[in-house]
Amino acid sequence: MKRFPFAAFLIIATVRGFLLNFGVYYATRAALGLTFEWSSPVAFITTFVTLFALVIAITKDLPDVEGDRKFQISTLATKLGVRNIAFLGSGLLMVNYVASILAAIYKPQAFNRSLMIPAHTILALILIFQEAISGFYRFIWNLFYAEYLIFPFI
């Protein structure tokens, strides 16, 4: 997948974003004999994770940049630089967190404001103050898992 970043994004976004969230939720409802019912939290987590998948796809080569340069493998990180890719990934994650806060503010009937606003503010602040670019890819996976920890309560 290293040589095909767009394909990597599509696979990650489809599996982690859409199928895992929308697909499993609605397949489970159908298996239980429940009718289709729109779920704002499921739509939220699907959208959130799909954008997150884009960040994972564009930052996945950050830990390997030295080896990629050595073996002349062209990746976004080798083309644009580790720092630039880390900033791009951070910027996209900030869009996710700001959108999450705004969703809680503008759709209080759909989301648990008292959890979504402080949780996403804290995660955004942790992201802002992340210093080491070398561990950035591992760090964003921790943020990814943190979102699933708070999801049942939103």
UniProtKB/TrEMBL annotation:
Q: Highest taxon of the source? A: Eukaryota
Q: Which GO terms describe its molecular function?
A: transferase activity, transferring alkyl or aryl (other than methyl) groups
Give the InterPro entries listed for this entry: UbiA_prenyltransferase
Per the record's keyword annotation, is NADP included, yes or no?
A: no
Signal peptide region: none
Q: Which GO terms describe its cellular component?
A: chloroplast membrane
Membrane topology term reads: Multi-pass membrane protein
Q: Which residues cross the membrane?
A: 41-59, 80-105, 117-140
Cellular compartments annotated: Plastid, Chloroplast membrane
Task: Name the UniProt key words of this record, in alphabetical order.
Answer: Membrane, Transferase, Transmembrane, Transmembrane helix
Main location as per UniProt: plastid
Entry-linked PANTHER family = HOMOGENTISATE SOLANESYLTRANSFERASE, CHLOROPLASTIC
**Family (UniProt):** Belongs to the UbiA prenyltransferase family.
| Record's protein name | Homogentisate phytyltransferase 2, chloroplastic
